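Record 1 of the preview.
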Amino acid sequence: MEKYLAVLCFLLISLHMKAVCEERQVYIVYLGEHSGNRNFEEIEEHHHSFLHSVKGSKQEAETCLIHSYKHIINGFSAFLTPEEASTVSEMDRVISVFRSQTRRLRLQTTRSWDFTNLLEANGDLSRVNGEKLLQRASYGKDVIVGVFDSGIWPESRSFNDEGMEPVPKSWKGTCQQGIAFNSSHCNRKIIGARYYLKHYEAELGPVKEKMEFRSPRDKNGHGTHTASTIGGRRVPNASSLGGFANGTASGGAPFVRLAIYKVCWQPDPLNVVVCPDGDTLAAFDDAIKDGVHVISLSIGGNTSFPYAEDGTAIGSLHALKRDIIVVCAAGNSGPTPSSVANVAPWLISVGASSIDRIFQSTIVLGNGLIVQGRTVTPLRKTKKYPLVYAVHVEIPGKTTNLTTGWCFPGTLSKKHVKGKVVFCRVGFISQALEVRRAGGVAAIFGNPYVGKGVYEIPFLLPGTTVLQNDRATIVSYILNNENPTATLFPGRTIIGTGPAPFMAPFTSLGPNGIEPNILKPDITAPGLNILAAWTEASPPTQLHQDHRVVKYNIASGTSMSCPHASAVAALLKAIHPDWSSAAIRSSLMTTARRVNNVQIPITDAVGNIATPFHYGAGHFQPSKAADPGLVYDASYADYLLFLCSSGTAFLDPSFKCPKHVPPPSDLNYPSLAIAKLNGNMTVSRTVTNVGTGNSTYTVSIVPPPGYTVEILPTKLYFSKIGEKQSFSITVKVAASIKETKFEFGWYAWSDGVGHVVSSPIVVSAA
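->
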């Protein structure tokens, strides 16, 4: 009873807060890092003092405070008007004040790790080293990964702790209780769990019980999926609905410890998950204090924000200071240029690409023509049905020239659709629901994306998606036959397809919108149609009309590629506990590959050769990353020096910028980006030997078209592990170049005995 009274009181306070703070927005006031010996009460009183100076009363100041960050990060979030925010920003000791972003996730593995290992071995089964990497890392057993997401479904077999050792003594976190979640749900696998609601409820109102659990428990499925991709135990005979993708499900680091930070909530049933910056920053503050080694954050917007106005950038900078690796999704806003998110150079930004698995379904048209579609929707029986084009069966006046044929809700005529297969120009969940509402027995959808990347959805009626070049074939058949028919056959899982990987059609692209002199994304990893654990509290489509329950589900997005990279980062941390987060990013990037499983360059979904704006340095290769030969290291001070060149050094007021600041391109990064080059530029890089003691590395260069690249010296000599050597890179614009578009090249250091340390070059002329 006391628990429910407490919840009721909190809801009433939240409603009162929203009423008092009407017409105001949530801002984050960033004050840097805590120093001194203030207790929590004194810290909160200090934060109140800033608000009191712009509010009408002390009570209003206290009411409008949302979060007070008390552990590592010094700051708070509160309701402010733009005028009040401006006033606070001018106060002493205030570093930045910015409108808190409410980021949204749109939900866009049995095979992905096998594919990664096989790709790395160039298809040679005898050279697959994935198990050796796991053994070398002790399966990640001493590494703690903080998962910032929508929570976890602790009963999943992926999270059992059988045979695992006691929780590491370094762990300082907690298992926070809530609705349908208590301390018994934490174990030696899920070692901690917290949830964050203050910002969400202050801005959007109380959580709806039908939509969410007020606890770390996952109602949405996204968080369970990402957590099991990172550290799920091996589960045989796992599959999605209908038996698709059957195999042994496993995370990349099966013995890694998971710490759950639920910062994402679902306010409505439309697949939109809300992750407020204010709550995310509170999670960073706790996770750093709790003792995590890696933070996996499958949260990205459709744009990037200046570092001083980005809660993820600020939180990850504090994590970086303590050598905590932060891995983020690059975003699902592709193929729009400069759409990449999470672009701070101190975090790892991950794009999404395919694996060598498809779910093929055969369609036989009435004239005998065979079209191969894609589906993960079970089909109970195979039968020939009349086939209609949505354009011809719409309710008059319900569509326009722009929307005809799209099967939008309420547009199809039941009279003309009942008992038929409907061809819709595109296929998402809403289109399938419309065909079902109108009485259709099945649907054929055109792929919403250009090219071959199909985002699989377990529709609520039999349905399959065809690639865009097959859409015209089906439409032509319907238009030229008096009684068109179609027979849909059950889908099947096909492994070993190629070429793979190709870049997912939705993966966000560079150039970096905040600082184009830093290449983002950094790498790519599997993110298209990935099977992983799922919540049993929501159906696979998350629709209220869907009453199916699954233990494993297929999902797509950079949300899925991010945890793949997080798992590998955890393994690398286990193997090399003394490596910095920069060294681990470097090892992932410089050992990445740019060719697919048929040994030709990786392409985008359309078939065009992909560039570093798609995949950064390339597709990650975990075993090679464990032994990169050389690494590009960078310290906290190096990043602050970079911020000096970007004009945001004030993020740490204790750091004084030098009189002569190097350009942003001079940051010791594993890639080189120079935007708007005028004439020539020389930058420096320093590499640290982590390979063999006595070694010599020779450089090779593929300059971007229209530019010359000179690297001096051309050879680097090392006599011991840990030794550092520096070199200069001079990039010069050719006299004949006229276009200002970005061009791409590469340089690589090789020791001739297996270590090839490769870096992309991205340049545009002024």
